[in-house]
Design brief:
Chain B: It is an enzyme of class 1 (oxidoreductase). The complex is a heterodimer of chains A (176) and B (615). Chain A is an alpha+beta fold. Chain A folds into two domains: 60 residues; 86 residues, 3-Layer(aba) Sandwich (Glutaredoxin). Chain A contains seven helices and five strands. Chain A has a five-stranded mixed beta sheet, with helices on one face. With 615 residues, chain B is α/β, with parallel strands linked by helices. Chain B is 33% helix and 13% strand. Chain B has a five-stranded mixed beta sheet, with helices on both faces. The longest helix of chain B has 20 residues. The two termini of chain B are 48 Å apart. Classes of the chains: A alpha+beta (176), B alpha/beta (615). At the A-B interface, α3 and α4 of A face β8 of B. The structure holds iron/sulfur cluster (SF4) (3 copies) and FE2/S2 (inorganic) cluster. The site of one iron/sulfur cluster (SF4) has 13 residues of chain B, from α3.
């Protein structure tokens, strides 16, 4: 497999160094690395000749970018109006308790990341919880443990142990 | 002076400030502000037009020519025909426009805006460093805010004060982005940008790092741009009071050349008032054992730097162009962004560090003092010198050259704390010998001053006889980049002068592209030390601009001092001649090298990350 930084260099080459391409490049960088660590952001700052503060500003503005490693499963709880009035806050709280996490945190085993989101466009099913691509509607706080256990069971059933993404991918990029 | 000896032709001066901020050609238009007919150039802002006819529209985020983003909405006005209130700082005037600046609706809206700002602000004016000198506080007063109707979530950030020069309190930030604008557009250092989103938005370095951990040049321009106490210098007033009260310590103070032309502003004197005598008198009354002038070591710097220049012109001692090294903000800029030019930097320490080294050796020996008991306090226009004083190479193993750096503002606070009536103080003289200075040492405080002082001396050295004093008017003034040819050692040498690191980039990039210069002076702050980040915060409240005019007035005062001095050449300063005869030997001697010269550290543009800079 091509080294991750070489792949990133290719992305930079393809999109030139024109202004306006930053979001696209960040997006692809996130696909390559899984998340945008400060090291990756600094690498892009140097390569694109854009101030690091500006890149970090963009990354921290858009919720689609992560600057920390994500778990294998991202649990999104909608706190938009429709879900909120149907009690999604309690579901969120139940998940926090069950997993011992804060918003936007990841479990130590790297399995789950918990985050609150705004409307996901499934208001008919409110309150809504999404785990990666699986959508759960009309969830109650009491359902939470049961839902989680499905994923935990799946992990155990899987032969190989799930490997948590490294905290810092290749801190030093290749010398070139 | 014989014309064949001194060729002087300024080369196409380039100036940032000369360029019109709005590139469109302006025709004049007629419009109405509060029923008064006004004629002004089309397209200037309503705020600016009102200011010219004596109506002050309150503002907060606006900084003329630097930050015109309409972010804070404090400057709302009514425009006839427009449904919503408009931000005067970004609303262009046009023919027939009818503006109302103080209707009840306008006043109500402005009040709401400021109340909202205050509702998430750590309001602790009584114990705030900007108390009585704060734009937000001033606005609350002018708008007559009597209660704050909004309560809600409030920010609670820790104070960032890890570095020795600037303290950041995000709880007092109003997100006006003036710091970001000045750091990015004027200094071109790009430390700040908006981070996060919504309520969590902060104007901060990447990952909200401390300024010590990013490529900040410590210039403090963001501090003088900040309307509140969100960015302030790190004070060391209490430590200085402590030293003054300690009977075991011998406390020596030195004042940078520019302090004598700016300190008066804090006490209500007009910009450009020379207060040298009162400055000295106030320091004596604060209890300093000796009151000296950094102007003296500026003369020493010139002796060293002029000889360095002559050596390099002879092909010895390092590459050309020689880059001046008296501005520690510029030094850090070079270390971060142009490390390839570190060999070009003069190895001279900045004058206040030379002063510390001389005080703890030459002066200590002369007076029979234990150098470890001497405390050197430097009153500087500058936050970068706080950083410089903390550099490990600035001292011997046993002591720091300079123990404490106070900004002009901190000294003013000490004078107030001591209850001195500054304006009624008598005029007193600096102590000898380290208070004796030439006019050349004094003009160090303005852009172009170092080159002018060095060329005066280099010229006199090479010609071996007294030429009288040459005034290099072309080195003066506020153009961003000044250039000239001077004849020295039988050849024409090209000199350039830049102030503000954004302007420095222009010269450095030309050097990178292969253009030849021989001697380049760079000062980190716009206008030089007179515009330093430690100077009185002036202007924006009433003038809505960090105006180069007032820096100009301050600089003019320095040149007036120079003209009034009997001695105007560094090498003619008798105290300088004496220190070479008694102690240093000759310029660039071994002792001089040990005490007066230093070395630099390449830092790179992204400290802390293992990335290759762009090729
Ligand atoms: S920054 Fe201004 S308004 Fe805020 S506490 Fe300090 S003086 Fe008061
Ligand atoms: S001190 Fe200077 S370089 Fe540092 S953040 Fe402030 S303006 Fe920018
Ligand atoms: S730190 Fe000061 S200048 Fe910067 S955004 Fe905050 S209030 Fe404005
Ligand atoms: S919006 Fe005009 S001064 Fe801030």
């Amino acid at each position: 497999m091509l080294d991750k930084y070489s792949r990133l260099d290719k992305v930079i080459k393809v999109h030139g160094r024109q202004p306006g391409q930053l979001i696209r490049i960040l997006h692809q960088a996130q696909e390559i690395f899984g998340y945008l660590s400060p090291e990756v952001q600094a690498y892009l700052a140097a390569k694109l000749n854009i101030p690091l503060a500006e890149i970090a500003g963009v990354v921290s503005f858009y919720s689609l970018f992560n600057s920390e490693p994500r778990g294998k499963y991202t649990i999104s709880v909608c706190l938009g109006t429709a879900c909120y009035v149907k009690g999604s806050q309690e579901i969120f709280q139940a998940l926090k308790n069950e997993l011992d996490l804060d918003d936007d945190d990841t479990t130590p085993d790297g399995l789950f990341t918990l985050r609150s989101t705004r409307c996901m466009g499934a208001c008919g099913l409110a309150p809504v919880v999404a785990i990666n691509d699986d959508i759960y509607g009309q969830v109650k706080a009491g359902d939470v443990a049961g839902i989680l256990s499905r994923y935990q069971a799946k992990e155990l059933a899987d032969d190989h142990e799930y490997q948590r993404p490294a905290e810092h991918p290749a801190t030093a990029p290749p010398p070139h | 002076m014989p014309a064949d000896k001194l060729i002087f032709d300024p080369v196409s001066p380039v100036s940032q400030e000369d360029e019109a901020p709005h590139p469109v050609a302006r025709k004049k238009v007629r419009f109405w502000i509060d029923g008064r007919e006004v004629v002004a150039e089309e397209g200037i802002s309503v705020l600016e037009a009102a200011h010219r006819v004596g109506i002050e529209i309150p503002s907060l985020c606006y900084l003329k020519n630097i930050n015109e983003i309409g972010a804070c909405r404090v400057c709302l006005v009514e425009i006839e025909g427009a449904r919503n209130l408009q931000a005067a700082c970004v609303y262009p005037v046009s023919a027939g426009l009818k503006v109302r600046t103080s209707t009840p609706r306008v006043l109500r809206a402005r009040r709401t805006v400021v109340e909202l700002l205050l509702s998430d602000h750590h309001r602790e004016c009584t114990n705030c460093i900007r108390n009585l000198n704060c734009e937000l506080q001033h606005l609350a007063d002018t708008l007559g805010i009597r209660n704050i109707r909004f309560t809600g979530e409030t920010s609670n950030y820790p104070i960032f004060n890890k570095n020795p020069f600037i303290v950041r309190d995000y709880n007092k930030c109003i997100k006006c982005r003036r710091c970001e604008a000045i750091c990015s557009k004027v200094q071109e250092v790009h430390v700040y940008s908006a981070q996060n989103r919504g309520f969590d938005t902060v104007i901060a370095p990447a990952f909200m790092k401390d300024l010590a951990e990013v490529a900040c040049i410590t210039c403090g321009q963001c501090v003088i741009a900040c309307p509140t106490a969100s960015l302030v210098e790190k004070e060391c007033i209490d430590e200085v009071w402590q030293a003054l009260a300690d009977p075991d310590k011998y406390v020596v103070v030195q004042t940078a050349p520019s302090i004598q032309v700016t300190l008066g502003e804090v006490f209500g004197l007009p910009v450009g008032t020379v207060v040298t005598g009162k400055l000295v008198a106030s320091l004596r009354r604060l209890g300093f054992d000796r009151v000296f002038a950094t102007d003296f070591t500026a003369d020493l710097t010139i002796m060293e730097e002029a000889h360095e220049l002559l050596e390099r012109l002879d092909g010895r001692g390092g590459p050309l162009p020689l880059l001046s090294s008296c501005s520690p903000g510029w030094i850090k800029f070079c270390e971060h962004f142009y490390p390839e030019f570190i060999p070009n930097l003069s190895t001279c320490k900045s004058p206040h560090e030379m002063f510390g080294a001389i005080t703890k050796t030459y002066f200590a020996q002369k007076e029979g003092l234990d150098p470890k008991k001497i405390v050197v306090v430097a009153v500087m226009p500058c936050t970068a010198k706080k950083f410089e004083a903390s550099r490990p190479e600035m001292g011997s193993g046993d002591w720091k050259d300079v123990d404490f750096v106070l900004t002009t503002r901190e000294l003013a606070r000490m004078i107030r704390q001591a209850g001195l009536n500054f304006r009624q103080l008598p005029d007193e003289e600096y102590d000898t010998p380290l208070g004796i200075a030439s006019g050349a040492g004094t003009i160090f405080g303005a852009t172009g001053g170092v080159v002018e002082a060095a060329v005066r001396t280099a010229y006199a050295i090479t010609h071996g006889r007294e030429m009288g004093v040459i005034d290099f008017e072309e080195f003066r003034g506020i153009s961003g980049v000044k250039e000239a040819w001077v004849e020295l050692k039988g050849r024409r040498i090209k000199v350039a002068i830049a102030h503000g690191t954004g302007n420095a980039r222009k010269v450095l990039d030309r050097m990178k592209a292969g253009e030849q210069f021989d001697y380049v002076e760079i000062m980190a702050c716009p206008g030089g030390c007179v515009g330093g980040g430690g100077q009185p915060i002036f202007g924006s409240r009433d003038h809505k601009e960090i105006s180069l005019d007032y820096r100009h007035n301050r600089a003019d005062a320095l040149y007036r001092i120079d003209y009034s001095r009997r001695i105007r050449l560094s090498h003619e300063n008798p105290a300088v001649q004496k220190i070479y005869a008694e102690f240093l030997g000759a310029p660039l001697s071994e002792t001089a090298n040990k005490l007066l010269h230093t070395h630099y550290t390449p830092r790179g543009p992204l400290p802390g990350y293992a990335v290759n800079p762009v090729q």
